[in-house]
């Protein structure tokens, strides 16, 4: 399994550059309550989560275009799920405008926005950064298949 490298504040510029290159929002990555990771080797992929008790909002999955289609995105999300479970996260939520099929293939299920925990509904990503047309999805980390 892929081993994640936790990003420190001094590493966030790399993440912001990668998100900008992928046309993904990055305005709030330096705010408190977020953990970001890189794939730690070769062409770096990034992923993060914004934590709210037993729930977390998956943030900022970005895989370099040259590395897409090779399983890196799936591996980094699976590794994030392992990290999340270690710290007591029971559900990962996400918003996506372009990758709903990818996330569905790795176990995320569509969810209605009103299902979102209240704290996730108040995040900038939920309210402002992702359009209302974005797919909202959930992965239950307490299920046996995880």
Task: Tell me what the structure shows.
- The chain is α+β, with helices and mostly antiparallel strands and 146 residues long.
- The chain has one domain: Aminopeptidase (3-Layer(aba) Sandwich), CATH 3.40.630.30.
- It has 5 helices and 7 strands; from the N terminus they run βαβββαβαβααβ.
- It has a 7-stranded mixed beta sheet with strand order 1-2-3-4-5-7-6, sandwiched between helices.
- A hairpin with a 7-residue loop joins strand 2 (34-38) and strand 3 (46-52).
- The longest helix has 15 residues, at 72-86.
- It is globular.
- The chain starts with a strand and ends in a 6-residue tail after the last strand.
Structure keywords:
single chain, 146 residues, globular, seven-stranded mixed sheet, alpha+beta, Aminopeptidase
What's this entry about, in short?
The protein has 146 residues and is of the alpha+beta class. Helix content is 28%, strand content 25%. It has one domain: Gcn5-related N-acetyltransferase (GNAT) (Aminopeptidase, 3-Layer(aba) Sandwich), CATH 3.40.630.
């Amino acid at each position: 399994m892929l081993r994640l490298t936790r990003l420190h504040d001094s590493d966030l510029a790399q993440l912001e550059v990668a998100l900008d290159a992928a046309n993904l929002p990055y305005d709030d990555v330096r705010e408190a309550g977020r953990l970001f990771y890189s794939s730690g080797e070769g062409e770096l992929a990034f992923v993060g989560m914004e934590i709210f008790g037993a729930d977390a909002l998956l943030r900022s999955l970005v895989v370099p275009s040259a590395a897409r289609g090779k399983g890196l995105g799936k591996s980094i999300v699976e590794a994030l799920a392992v990290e999340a479970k270690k710290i007591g996260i029971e559900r990962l939520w996400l918003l996506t405008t372009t990758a709903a099929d990818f996330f569905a293939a790795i176990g995320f299920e569509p969810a209605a926005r009103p299902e979102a925990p209240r704290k996730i509904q108040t995040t900038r990503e939920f309210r402002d950064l992702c359009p209302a047309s974005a797919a909202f999805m959930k992965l239950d980390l307490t299920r046996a298949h995880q």
